[in-house]
Write a structure and sequence with these properties.
Blueprint lengths: L5 H7 L12 H15 L4 E2 H8 L6 H12 L3 E4 L6 E4 L1 H7 L4 H11 L4 H10 L6 H10 L5 H20 L45 E6 L5 E6 L5 H26 L3 H4 L2
Antiparallel strand pairs: 1-3, 2-3, 4-5
Helix pairs in contact: 1-4, 5-6, 8-9
């Protein structure tokens, strides 16, 4: 059977499914290594990156691989369209140039925090995820993945966790966020009030002064603060949008379950 390309995998993860990396972390690191071996830390156009990866510059695989590397914090990009370029991130450079074992483990653990939904699933599933059928049903029913995207996203999750386990780089679990007592809906279902993933390289002990902050107030008078530690880019705003869409899907699914009649209410 012919192995499916990252682009084909990415197409299967689109539609109404939340954003999820098309390839697991281990494979993404190998793609970053291919890029680094030929270009070091220099910015290159996407067609040059595609040459490094052995894919067609105009194929969806190029965008799928780029998106996965960016989600894991392995590359940074600039520009758009035909002028878009990417380069290896500082974290990736350190990882690929012989970082000491303890630093390597820290870097790998931070990369799990990159993709918003991958990190959110880690907080729920941890190192021992449920079986594939159960996990796929959860992703499909609660988070509104398509059935095919749910299966493939679960595979990416498992392969990423297995890779980190082999490297001895799994973050502590339960996480600090996961151990907070969750609020409950009227049906007793736990609601996810946890914060989002920590950006790659962020240090919780010392937060820099925000470079960009905007405060808005919703129609009920609730203040909402949007804060970035660096000047936001279209890509960082898209990342925030993807995470908010994930939270909306989860809250909507929880509300739908709360409206379902309990067995005691339907039994004669």
């Amino acid at each position: 059977m012919t192995e499916e390309s990252p682009g084909a995998r990415n197409r299967r993860l689109t539609g109404r499914s939340p954003a999820f990396p098309a390839i697991p972390l281990g494979e993404a690191i190998e793609r970053a290594r291919q890029l680094y071996d030929k270009n070091k830390v220099h910015s290159v156009p996407l067609h040059s990156a595609a040459d490094c990866w052995g894919v067609k510059p105009t194929s969806s695989s190029t965008l799928a691989i780029t998106a996965a590397l960016k989600a894991f914090g392995l590359v940074v990009d600039s520009g758009s369209g035909s002028s878009r370029t990417i380069r290896i991130s500082d974290n990736a450079r350190r990882l690929l140039t012989g970082a000491p074992p303890d630093v390597r483990r820290e870097l790998l653990g931070q990369m799990l925090r990159g993709p918003a939904i991958l990190w959110a699933r880690w907080q729920v599933w941890g190192p021992d995820a449920p079986d594939s059928n159960t996990a796929a049903r959860t992703l499909h029913n609660e988070l509104k993945f398509t059935e095919d995207a749910a299966r493939r996203s679960y595979k990416v999750y498992r392969e990423t966790i297995e890779f980190l386990k082999g490297e001895g780089a799994l973050p502590p679990w339960p996480t600090a966020d996961a151990t907070k007592a969750p609020s409950q809906g009227s049906d007793g279902d736990e609601r996810d009030d946890r914060s989002g993933p920590m950006p790659v390289g962020a240090q919780p002990e010392s937060r820099p002064k925000p470079a960009w902050e905007e405060r808005i107030v919703d129609e009920k008078g609730v203040a909402i603060v949007i804060r970035f530690d660096q000047e936001p880019t279209p890509a960082s705003l898209e990342y925030a949008r993807d995470y908010l869409n994930f939270k909306i899907r989860r809250m909507t699914a929880s509300a739908e379950r709360a409206r379902e009649p309990r067995p005691s209410e339907t039994d004669g």
